[in-house]
Amino acid sequence: MHRSLKYILPILIIALILPACSSRPKISRLDENEVTDLSGKWNDTDSRLVSDEMVASMLDSGWRSRWSGANEKNPALIVGRVKNETMEHINTKAFVADIEHAMIESGKIAFVADGNQRDSVRQERLDQLSNASEETIKEFGREIGADFMLFGSIITFTDQSGGAKIVSYQIDMKLIDIENNTVAWTGQKKIKKEIRRRRFKL
């Protein structure tokens, strides 16, 4: 082997290995409650904080105590559609799940399963008629009907100049009495984020 190749070959091997090593992602585990915001877009922190605040506001409002006093029980709620009216992809299913979790954890209401879940449970009751023992079969016609349905929407406002951008999220929630279609409660939450991009000078 030529003497110069003896020195060049190891250098070439190292040059090929180093990019492969440096391309591996660095992964760190974070606390699930830690506030993280890398892009400025809607994220899990926004979803959790908004759902907790909105549900607390809704359940502490006067409609619940008035209804519970008149009916001598906690109201039964179900979550309807939360519309994403922004240009951004927002996982509204995750947001609805956060809302449901906050409502159930409050202990102040009865929570009714959604349509897909109810269909699955009804199918299970049908299956029990043929396969379960008589003393464990669950009866039909004993479901609890929801008293109120919660609806929501998410919209954004954007203001941009140069390397700075302000993104404002507005979340509106509305609770409807299913029996008479009256609005029992409305809530609104706004989140404003400033996003600045660094400019690199040559």
What would you note in describing this structure?
With 202 residues, the chain is α/β, with parallel strands linked by helices. The chain has a single domain, classed as 3-Layer(aba) Sandwich (Rossmann fold), CATH 3.40.50. Helix content is 39%, strand content 26%. The longest helix has 20 residues, at 3-22. The mean pLDDT is 85.
In short:
The protein has helices at residues 3-22, 44-59, 62-71, 92-106, 115-131, and strands at residues 76-84, 110-111, 148-161, 164-177, 183-196. The protein is an alpha/beta fold and 202 residues long.
Chart the SSEs and their pairings.
Blueprint: H1 3-22, H2 44-59, H3 62-71, E1 76-84, H4 92-106, E2 110-111, H5 115-131, E3 148-161, E4 164-177, E5 183-196
Parallel strand pairs: 1-2, 1-3
Antiparallel strand pairs: 3-4, 4-5
Helix pairs in contact: 2-4
**How many domains, as an integer?**
1
> What is the overall number of helices?
5
Kindly, what is the distance between the CA atoms of the first and last residues, rounded to a whole number of angstroms?
44 Å
Give the low-pLDDT segments: none
Task: Based on the model shown, name its key terms.
five-stranded mixed sheet; 5 helices; 202 residues; alpha/beta; Rossmann fold
